[in-house]
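Postdoc handover notes: sequence design on the structure in folder B. Input tokens:
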């Protein structure tokens, strides 16, 4: 087996846990074909009924799925997408996530490359799971979380009563959704508690730097070329300007790079998303855009649990 084939097998059998009774839909594009072929081969070896959907460049960007794809997605018991990440297609990918969760489970790999697949997927996750569990125990039900960084981030919020998700690549149960590579924990802040300034180095994919300023859970001002492009795309849809996620990276092997799929998993980073809260908060939206904060200092009720990107727990 090649490195790519081993990683694909880990994704299919270890993460999605495909079996003969599954109907598997794989959505991909021309730039991701090598990885998609490996995933399809592993799915076939697992005995799952496998259908691939190729998104050609002549059809991009895609905002909404076709009627035929809607039918296929509803019939699938497992969906995976591996696509070059484009913020104009977030609503399309959002459809795959929501439909996949409603009828089965979803593996999301926006921007996954062969190199990332070989380096970050076929790995031992036990140490990551232990550390992530420890971090969630500290953060759960905190009345006051403060995040700062040397670039000027200063944001405070509560997560009291909110459910936490540890994304460790375990997607075998109906309704599951998550990324490979794995390695983050996240929740939705209590919306009205979320106020302050986020100075980001990356928003969505390849876009940044920029600044987001919040008052009581709503984005009031944003600057930076990437931020402005996303806000123009959101338009007058106010659900796209509500805080939807607070996440912390826990993957020691992930690197800070212009690929949000990997960067948001990196040790010492946090990320915030505007838009949909994935059912963890009150906001439901067709939008969801992640913003990366590097060298984060995190304080919980005055206790410093990370200092300039180094964990203290």
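Designed sequence:
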């Amino acid at each position: 087996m090649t490195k790519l084939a081993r990683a694909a097998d880990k994704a299919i059998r270890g993460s999605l846990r495909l079996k003969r009774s599954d109907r598997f839909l794989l959505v991909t594009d021309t730039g991701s074909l090598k990885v998609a072929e490996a995933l399809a081969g592993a799915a076939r070896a697992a005995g799952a009924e496998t259908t691939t959907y190729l998104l050609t460049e002549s059809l991009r960007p895609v905002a909404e799925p076709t009627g035929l794809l809607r039918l296929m997605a509803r019939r699938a018991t497992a969906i995976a997408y591996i696509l070059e990440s484009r913020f104009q297609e977030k609503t399309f990918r959002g459809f795959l996530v929501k439909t996949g969760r409603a009828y089965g489970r979803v593996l999301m790999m926006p921007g996954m490359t062969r190199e990332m697949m070989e380096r970050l997927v076929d790995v031992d996750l036990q140490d990551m799971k232990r550390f992530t569990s420890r971090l969630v125990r500290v953060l759960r039900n905190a009345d006051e979380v403060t995040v700062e960084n040397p670039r000027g981030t200063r944001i405070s919020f509560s997560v009291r009563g909110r459910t936490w998700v540890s994304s460790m690549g375990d997607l075998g149960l109906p309704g599951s959704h998550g990324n490979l590579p794995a390695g983050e924990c996240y929740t939705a802040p209590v919306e009205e508690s979320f106020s302050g300034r986020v100075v980001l180095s990356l928003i969505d994919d390849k876009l940044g730097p920029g600044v987001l300023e919040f008052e009581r859970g709503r984005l009031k001002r944003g600057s930076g070329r990437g931020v402005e492009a996303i806000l123009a795309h959101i338009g007058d849809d106010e659900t796209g300007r509500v805080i939807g996620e607070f996440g912390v990276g826990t993957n020691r092997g992930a690197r800070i790079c212009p690929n949000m799929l990997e960067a948001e998993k990196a040790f010492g980073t946090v990320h915030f998303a505007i838009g949909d809260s994935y059912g963890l908060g009150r906001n439901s939206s067709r939008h969801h855009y992640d913003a990366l904060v590097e060298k984060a200092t995190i304080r919980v009720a005055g206790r410093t649990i990370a200092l300039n990107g180094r964990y203290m727990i």
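Context for whoever picks this up: The chain has eight helices and 19 strands. Don't rerun without checking with the PI first.
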